Structure formats: C-alpha cells, structure tokens
Amino acid sequence: xxxIPAASRIAELREQLHQHNHLYYVLDTPDIPDAEYxxxxxxxxxxxxxxxxxxxxxxxxxxxxxxxxxxxxxxEHLVPMLSLDNVFTEDELTAFEQRLQERLGSDSPIVFTCxxxxxxxxxxxxxxxxxxxRAATRGDGRRGEDISANVRTIASIPLKLMGSYxxxxxxxxxxxxxxxxxYEFNAQAERNGExxxxxxxxxxxxxxxxxxxxxxxxxxxDMYCYSIGLIxxxxxxxxxxxxxxxxxTLGFKINPEVVRATGAxxxxxxxxxxxxxxxxxxxEIDGIVYKVDDFRLQQTLGFVSRAPRWATAHKFPAQxxxxxxxxxxxxxxxxxxxxxxxxxxxVFVGGVTVSNATLHxxxxxxxxxVRAGDTVVVRRAGDVIPQIVQVVKGKRKKGARKVxxxxxxxxxxxxxxxxxxxxxxxxxxxxxxxxQRKQALKHxxxxxxxxxxxxxxxxxEQMVDEGLLRSAxxxxxxxxxxxxxxxxxxxxxxxxVLSAIEASKxxxxxxxxxxxxxxxxGETTANTLAAQFxxxxxxxxxxxxxxxxxxxxxxxxxxxxxxxFANKDxxxxxxxxxxxxxxxxxxxxxxxxxxxxxxxxxxxxGTLEGMSRxxxxxxxxxxxxxxxxxxxxKTTALIAGEKAGSKLGKAExxxxxxxxxxxxxxxxxxxxx
Length: 673
Ligand code: JCF
Hints:
Bound molecules: 8-hydroxy-2-methylquinoline-6-carboxamide
Largest sheet: 7 strands, antiparallel
Low-confidence stretches: none
Helix content: 25-40%
Oligomer: single chain
Structural class: alpha+beta
C-alpha cells in the first residue's frame, strides 16, 4: 500500500486485528478466514519492523511474547483483591441469606448473581484511556506480581478496550486452562519426555509464572472476568449483573453461565443444576459464587476482614484429597498383564469414598515415584477412575522403599516377564494362573467360541474358586452333584448347564481354535487357520514359516501360536478336551476345489438378484457345504439377499457371520473350478 502512509496503515491494521481477535477469541464468531488474519498480521509485523518508532506494547503483534524478565516485580493493588467466604451445605446457604436480611433489616428475598467458580488464578487487569497497562496476580490481596508480559499473550484478553470505556478501569477475573488445552498440552509434554502438569490449575499457574512470555504464549490460557475493582471517568453500573454486561461491551470475556437468582432457594437450584453439568463443562470449577446483585446493598453490607459480606462461594465436593498409600499391589488381568494398583486409606473425594487407585503400569509408578506409606494426592474428576496425581514428598517417611515389579505372579507364582522394552509385565502362568484361568474359561464358554449357554461369568468364577474348574477340560467331567452345591443352582438350571456343555462338544475347528484364547488369535484368524491347515494336528505342528504363509498371520501371531502349542499344560488341556469328546469335522484339503466348503453350513434368506435361492443352494452343496433352513449357532454364515427377515435378526443375535450376495459370489468364484 505505497500510497497510504505507513503510520495510518499500521493504525488501521492494529485496529482491525484487535477486532478480529475479539470476534475469534472472545465471541467465538470469526468473520474472516484464518489465512486472511495471518496475512494482515504479517503485513503489520513487516511495517512495524520498518518503523520501530511506532512500537506499541499493545499491538496485536505483541501476543507472541516479549523479552525475558529477570524476575517479576511486586506491585500494589489500587483496591485490595478480596477472598471469599465459603458455604458447604444448603443450610449454610440459607443461613447466609438470613444474615444478610438481618443486616439489611428486610425479610424479602435477596437478588443474587450466580456464577461458576473457576479453578484458576485470580488476576487484576488495569486499563488507562482504554489501553492495557498492567496485570497482576492476587498475591496476598494487597500486593501481587506484575505479570503484564505474560497476560498480553492471552488472546481473549483485550489490549485495547472497545465501546465507551472509562478513563481508568481495573477489573478482576480468573485465568484458567480449558480442559481440552490441558489434555493436549500434557499429551505433548509426555511425547517430549517432559513432566505433565498435575491439574489444569497448576498448568495455568505454571504458565503465568514463566519469565519468558514467549513460553506463556504457547499455553492454551483463557480468562473470564468477574468483577470491577475500580472505575473512574465513565459509566457507573448499578449492579453486578449490569457490570458484567458492561464489561462485555468493552471486549472482556464473561462466563455465559452467569444468571440472576432470587433467594437462597433459587441459588441452590442453580448450584444443583451446575453440579450435574460439572463434568460436561469445558473447564474445571470448584463451586458456585453468589453475589448480592445490587451495588447499593453491597455497599451497605461492607466487608469483614478480607472478604466481602455480600458474597460467598458454595463449594462442590473436592476432586483432590490427600491420603495414605497403604501398599502397591499387583493385579493379573485377562491376558496375564500384571498391573500395579494403589491401596489407599479410604478418603472422600469427588463425592465418593475411594480406597483404590489405578497406577496403570510401572512407568507410571516410576514417574510418580510412589512408595508404600507415602502421603499422596488422589484425584477423582467426573466418572474417571481415581488417579494418584502426586506424592507429597515432604511427608515421606524415612526408609520408604521404591516399588519393584514382582518377579513371580501374585496369583499363581509363575514367572513374571517384561514385555520387550515396554512398561508392561506379564504372568507366564497361562491357564495355570487362577486369575487368567477365570478369564480364559469365560472366553472358552462364550457365544462365538464354544457357545455354552447358561455358563455365565459368575458361575465360572464360583467354580474356579470352589476348585471345580482348573482347566476347560474339567467342564466335560462335571457331575450334577458338583453343580448342585453351588449358589443359586437348582436341579433345573444344573440340567440346563450340563446339557449345554454336552451340546458344545460338537463344534468346528475354527471355533475350537478361537476358544483356546491364544493371544491375538481372534475369530477371523482362527477360521483362516482352520481353512488353510484343515486339521488341528497340522496347525500344532506347523513351523513359523508355514504359519507366516497364512493371510492374517504376522510375526507376533505366529510367535504366540508357537509358544501356545509348545506349552505342555496347553497340550495336556487340548488332549483332555478331545478325550472328553470335543470334536469337529476336519476339512479335507485334498478335495479342495471339489469339497472346499465341507464342514460348513449355510442358510439362505431374502431375494438374490443374480440367481434363485435354489441355484445358490446347489452351487454351495457342490462344494461340500450343507445348506440348512434355519439359523443356529452352528451356522457358518447366513447369506442375506434383499428383504431379509427374521433370519437376519436371529443371525445377528447369535453372532453368526452374515454375507451379502456379492460376498457369496466371491466365495463361489474362489472354489468353483
Ligand atoms: O471464579 C472464581 N474463582 C471467582 C473468584 C469468581 C468471583 O466472582 C470472585 C472470586 C473471588 C473473589 N469474586 C470475588 C469477590
């Protein structure tokens, strides 16, 4: 723009960028694309570089941070920053209103503003002639630290006021880190091997404590303003609610949840409504702030020591508490994963009593450096499982020893091994381990495996605990008397379970292989292996090379198969199952092409486009398949054409594979000569 003098172009760009910044960060309604904003900003930066005499600390270009400070300077607040009294119950809230009514000599309900109490850092912002001049932390309420350079980098804080601003204005509010930004920042920190922040409040505090404001500029901070400290030479709002509306017109961000409420009862309803939504809010709150709305009444009520009489904070149950870590124990999961769990002295946190917390893995144990006997900070936010966020190192007892992963499984005493270089440890006991055995048996009996109807999780746990079940083969030698001794097992349910066990003996190689619960051998892999090798013996004696030749089998699955079949206990269980009568039809590979679908049962339903159902039936049968009229758990697949009805529903319920006409054609094409 050579014809416009640089000075006026700079002024114009600054004003426009302030405006767009406000639209984007305060109102959340941008009206130009990001790229256009970036172009304007780059033009401004280049003009400012050519005209250093036009430097302005409040230029939109200064949001990126300024030179590093040696230390923060201490500043005195123009008007002291107050703290808030607390109430914890509805009764205390009612008593709060009553005290106010007595002081005011009136028994009519009081009008309050209600707002979420953000869990961040309280700050004061000072503006003169509409220009941002200073930001300070609350400090002790009289003096705080000058954090102007850091605050300038927070995009939702205006550097120039809009509208009809007063000559001098000091406002207060809470700087916080929204949850999404907090999670993203921590994830990034962990990727970089840096220490994550314990909670969003610490993250906000740590970000504002940076002497290098270019670092603060990288942090996702935000601010809601909640009151006026000082206002000179301009409008004088008459109430808290009006004051917030006015601050909004000046460009400040005001929490949209703020409402007026009349009387303690309405205040309490607001408290309950927000508590119910607490976990859905995009930021952390620790309660509700009630303020007498009318400024004249506030004036009459005045202050006690360092808190106003006209306001109070109604606290939610704390989401973090301290307690003693009694011990770190190890649990054995589904696949033998050995994970550390913290046993805690019971503590009321996040609205429930917590006595256990997850520690995830040994990396987490090492990162936190938790030791038995430590005092720890436990956090339970929302429905999230309780976490240990921090050890209170100052309270550590002498001689507290580091937690080591167990050398043997706490359940079965088999060796525990480390998984490669991961932080995961695993019990090598396999089906010998009671913890794994319960899981393995549940899987064995499940619908898509051996499909033993009525053999539920509770029953399996009971049978393992009673010593009735050590391995899957024990299922097939169970007697009526064994089961009658169990809880809630009458003769009818015993008979049902026994007949379901009996019926499960007739199965398919694919199902059997899947039921064995070999790590990472799911249904598809099991069926592919069955189809490719035809017999269990062929699979058991296959070497790595033969296994890797199978579609779907990579090095990890091949290794898992080899290890599984090399284990003597597993071999014994398989032998015992076969001796007990578990059987299936081997797939005759010699006949492949002739009888490639032998042992498979299909059901046809709905209308096929390219052929009649009868033609489809004949072609399937020609490949050795059975075609049946009804879907059962033994059905290999249901072939569903257009307008498929109840059979499709039944197949879905039973977990039977459903093929489309297209998939049927592909199947036929693969095997027909
Ligand atoms: O959100 C807050 N943490 C918050 C703190 C909100 C308020 O309206 C406050 C406050 C502390 C003092 N008001 C006062 C007077």
